[in-house]
Amino acid sequence: MLVLVAPGQGAQTPGFLTPWLDLPGVEDRLREWSAAIDLDLVHYGTKADADEIRDTAVAQPLLVASALVSSGQLFATPDEFTARVGAAAGHSVGELAAAAWTGTLTETAAMTLVRRRGQAMAEAAAVTETGMAALLGGDEAVVVPHLERLGLTAANVNGAGQIVAAGTAEQIAALVESKPEGTRRVVPLKVAGAFHTRHMAPAVTALETAVAELTVADPHTRYVSNRDGQVVGSGQDLVQRLVGQVANPVRWDLCMETFKALGVTAIIEAAPGGTLVGLAKRALPGVQTLALKTPDDLDTARTLIAEHRSPAAPSAE
C-alpha cells in the first residue's frame, strides 16, 4: 500500500521551486494561486533568499504549493489518486496539502487557507520571541519531563528518536545549554515561532473564522491526522482538526504507527521531500521510500506507484 505525505515548515530552501517551473502548466498554476492569495509564489520559490522564505507567512503557502504541483505530476484526477494511494497525510502545514489531495478542500481553498494560516501564525509569533529546536536521540520518557521543567512544549513528537521542542527564545537557549540525558544533539530550526503550542492560540481564532467560509467535502482517500494518528472520514472533523492543530502537538509518531497498521509498503514524500522519508526509514524498516526533490525523481516515483498500487480504499476504517 502506498502512502503519500507532505512535509512541514523548515523543508524549504532558496530556489527549490525553480526546476518545477520547467514542467508544462506548473508556472500557470502557481501564478493563478499567487493572484488568489496575493503572494508571488514564483518569485519566492525561485529568487528569494533564505531569510525571505523563513517568514512563516511566505513559507507555508510555498510548501503547500510545492506539494500540490509535484504530486500533480503523478496523479491526474481524484479517481486516479484514490486508485493508487491508500492513505495520505501531511506534517503540520503539510496537512493542508493532504486535505486537498483527499478532496476535502479544493486546491484553491487549501491555498487560501494556508495563506491565512501563515499570516495568523506569523502574527502570533510576533507577540513574543519564540522558536523551536529538534532533539535527536534520547528516550521520550526522559526528554519530555526535561522539556517541561524548562517550560518548553514537545511540539512535534516525530518518532524515530526525534522530538521538536518549542517555547521562548530564552527557553530554547537553556535547552541548548542543558540537553536531556541521552540526547545526542539539539538543533535550532529555521522557523519563526513556537508552533503547535499555547503561543499560537490567537491563530486558532483567526482560522476558525476562515474555515467557516469554506466548502468542505468528506475525504475520498484515507486521511491520517496529526492530532492522534487516526483516520478521519468526516470533512468537517478534518477541517476542525486543521484549525486546532496550530496550537497543539504534532504526533507524527502516531501517524507512522497508523501507516504500519494499514499495511504500508511504500511512502512518497512530495516536494520538497526528504525529512519525512528520513523518519520513515528509521521507524518503518522494510518500507520503500522516495522523496520528490526535483522533477528528475518523477520517473522513479511513477515506477514505485505502479509496484505498490493500492486498491480503492474507503476514507475511514
Radius of gyration: 18 Å
The CATH architecture name of the largest domain reads: 3-Layer(aba) Sandwich
Order of helices and strands: EHHHHHEHHEHEEHEHEEHHEHEH
The CATH superfamily of the largest domain is known as Malonyl-Coenzyme A Acyl Carrier Protein, domain 2
Number of domains: 2
Number of helices: 14
- CATH topology title of the largest domain: Malonyl-Coenzyme A Acyl Carrier Protein, domain 2
Low-confidence blocks of residues = 312-317
What's the assembly state of these chains? single chain
Mean pLDDT: 94
Question: Distance between termini?
Answer: 15 Å
The tally of beta strands, per DSSP, is 10
Beta-strand proportion: 5-15%
Structural class: alpha/beta
Spatial ordering of strands, largest sheet: 8-7-2-1-9-10
The CATH class of the largest domain is identified as Alpha Beta
Helix share of residues?
Answer: 40-55%
How does the overall form come out from the CA principal axes?
A: globular
| Main sheet: strands, sense, barrel | 6 strands, mixed
Description:
- The chain has helices at 26-37, 41-46, 50-54, 56-71, 78-84, 94-101, 107-125, 140-149, 169-177, 201-211, 235-245, 252-262, 275-283, 298-307, and strands at 2-6, 87-90, 130-136, 153-159, 162-168, 185-188, 222-224, 231-232, 266-269, 288-291.
- By secondary structure, the protein is an alpha/beta fold.
- It folds into 2 domains: 2-125 and 198-307, Malonyl-Coenzyme A Acyl Carrier Protein, domain 2 (3-Layer(aba) Sandwich), CATH 3.40.366.10; 130-188, Malonyl-CoA ACP transacylase, ACP-binding (Alpha-Beta Plaits, 2-Layer Sandwich), CATH 3.30.70.250.
- A 6-stranded mixed sheet has the order 8-7-2-1-9-10, sandwiched between helices.
- 50% of the residues are buried.
